Structure formats: structure tokens, C-alpha cells
Amino acid sequence: MQKQIDNQTTRRSMLLGLGAAVAGAAVIATPKASAQDSGFQPPRHDVDAWFDTLPGDHRVFIDTATGRGGAESLLYASNLHNARQSAYAGDPADFAMVICLRHFSTPFAFNDAMWEKYGNVFHGTTQISDPNSNAAPTSNLMLSENYGLALPNLGSTINAVLELGVQFAICDAATQFLATQLAQATSGDFNQIYSELQANAIPGRFVSAGVMALTRAQEYGYSLLYAG
Fold it and tell me: Structural domains in the chain?
């Protein structure tokens, strides 16, 4: 009888010891710090230094990849400024805000002259028609104040958000792709059309690729907001 009791006691001791060992192993296996707290710092590159030059207490990067998203980004930028002003008694100078026009929103980065010349191709990319004719636009709808609630930007225009200090990042990779499409559609020269697009862009800066600017912005402390 005493032997059975001793055996049970031994088993209980072994189980308790095993439990303590497992718990200890769990403690050892648990990372002591997250990657964010590990001291990791992404390298800086001169081409991205402009992210740190924009004034403002808050940093926002609005990413767009569709025609609708390009339009909605203007509305979002206006809404952010309005909310900042009404809820926080702030002003436009409080925001370092960037709208990125990339992928299928890129045609909105070009002025009316380019839309008059290449509107059919641009329309095929953005998929946003002129509300008055339901046809391909012959001007940049995001530059016009004449459409109001008929478009996804609900009347917020490129010029209006520029006045608020919003910066535009324009995808160069998508611009080159558009130049290729336009050269094929018009039997034109790629290099000439590419240069033409660059010379007729809205105020902003060309970035090597919108997706790259998106990732770099987050490394510089910009909050990401996706439109579209």
C-alpha cells in the first residue's frame, strides 16, 4: 500500500515538474520584443527624402489604383481637412497629405489638353464617362467644377485640394504604360508621347512606381488610406 502511495507521489511530482518545464520552455520561446520594438530602421534614400520635407503634424498617404479611386481620393482629402477643422480646430497646414495616382487612376494626372487629345484611351483606363454625354471625356473631369454630385469626387477638384496643400505623387511606371498604349493607338512615337505626358501633368511629382511610393510613405510615418 505504501509503495502504491509512493508511486502516485512520484508521478505527481514528475507531472508537476514536467508542467513547470513546459511553462519555462514557453517563456523562453516567447519573443522578448516585437519587430517594431527590435530597433529595425529602414534605410533612407535620397529619392524619398521629400516625404520628410512636407510640413504638418499629421501624415496621410491616400492610395488610388482605379479611376473611381482617383476621384474619391479628392473627396477624402477634402473630408479630412473639414474634419480636422471642425473637430480639432485645425487648419490645412496641420496635414502632410499625399494623393498617389497610379495604375488605372493615372490619367487624372494629366491636363485638359491631354484629355482632349487622348480622351478615348484615357477613358478606357479610368472607366469614368462624362456625366453629360455618357461618352469618353474630352477634358479632365477632376479639374472641372461643373459636375458636382454627378461624379465620385462630389465636386472636390484637383485644384481645390492643391490649394489645401495636398501633394500629388504620379506613377511613372503607369505613365510609361499609358505612353505605350497611346503610341499603339495613334501610331505615334513612344518617347515623344511619354515626354508630352510628363510636360502636361498636374502639379505634382513623378515617382518611379506608385506602389513603391506607397511602401516608402509608410516607412516615413504616413498613415495609409485607400480610395476606390
Answer: 50-227 (3.40.1260.10)
